[in-house]
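Here is the promised in-class demo. Please do not try to memorize the tokens; focus on the logic of going from shape to residues.
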């Protein structure tokens, strides 16, 4: 029976990227159409936070151990 180890943070990173992308896209649209209603600074902070978290925990390869029977 073969088991594989997965990176436990990859799923969370994908969700975080999706949410932050949607928030940034909406605020970028607001900055273009209605500049007085935009919160682009908060969105940029979220983008930087997401980038740091993905680099720290995100897409690091997981080494698998091979067992010979």
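The designed amino acids, position by position:
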């Amino acid at each position: 029976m073969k088991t594989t180890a997965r990176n436990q943070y990859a799923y969370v990173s994908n969700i975080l990227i999706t949410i932050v992308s949607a928030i940034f896209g909406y605020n970028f649209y607001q900055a273009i159409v209605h500049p007085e209603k935009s919160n682009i600074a908060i969105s940029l902070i979220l983008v930087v936070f997401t980038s740091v978290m993905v680099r720290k925990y995100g897409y690091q390869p997981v080494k698998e151990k091979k067992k010979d029977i």
